[in-house]
Design a protein that fits this description.
This protein is mostly helical. 49% of the residues lie in helices and 10% in strands. The chain has a two-stranded parallel ribbon.
C-alpha cells in the first residue's frame, strides 16, 4: 500500500480511499494477495513454534483479541465454531471454507462467567 499511496495512511486512515484507484490493477491485487499470504505463513510459523499446533496459512483466519465478556463476540464466535462442527459431523461432505480461529484475551479476576467462556474456548479447541 505504502509503495502506491505513500505512508500518510498510517496516521490518517481516510487516505486508504486512494487504494480504490488500484482496485482493477491485477498486478497490485496479486501483490496484495502475496503479502497477505506471506504474513499468514509467518503467523502460522509463530503459532507452531509457540504452541506446537499446525495452522494452514491458506485457511481463512478469524482472530479476536480483546477482554473476554459473556455478552461479547468471543462467546458468539465459539458457539459458531460448535455449530460448524455439528454441521460437519452431520454431513461430512459439507463444503466449508477452511478456517483457523484465533482467540486472545483475558477476564477480570472476579468475572466467573468470562472465565467459563475462556474454559469453553479452550475445551472446544482441544
Amino acid at each position: 500500500m505504502t509503495s502506491k499511496i505513500g505512508d500518510g495512511w498510517i496516521s490518517n486512515l481516510e487516505q486508504l480511499k486512494k487504494l480504490e484507484a488500484y482496485a482493477e490493477d491485477s498486478a497490485f491485487r496479486a501483490e496484495w494477495r502475496k503479502v497477505q499470504y506471506d504474513v499468514k505463513v509467518r503467523l502460522a510459523q509463530y503459532i507452531l513454534e509457540e504452541t506446537g499446533h499446525v495452522v494452514d496459512p491458506s485457511s481463512m483466519f478469524d482472530a479476536q483479541v480483546k477482554r473476554i465478556h459473556e455478552y461479547k463476540r468471543q462467546h458468539l464466535n465459539v458457539l459458531y465454531i460448535l455449530t460448524l462442527y455439528l454441521r460437519l459431523k452431520k454431513d461430512p461432505s459439507l463444503d466449508l471454507t477452511p478456517r483457523t480461529f484465533l482467540f486472545g484475551g483475558k477476564a477480570a479476576a472476579g468475572y466467573a462467567m468470562a472465565k467459563l467462556i475462556i474454559k469453553l474456548i479452550n475445551s472446544v479447541g482441544k
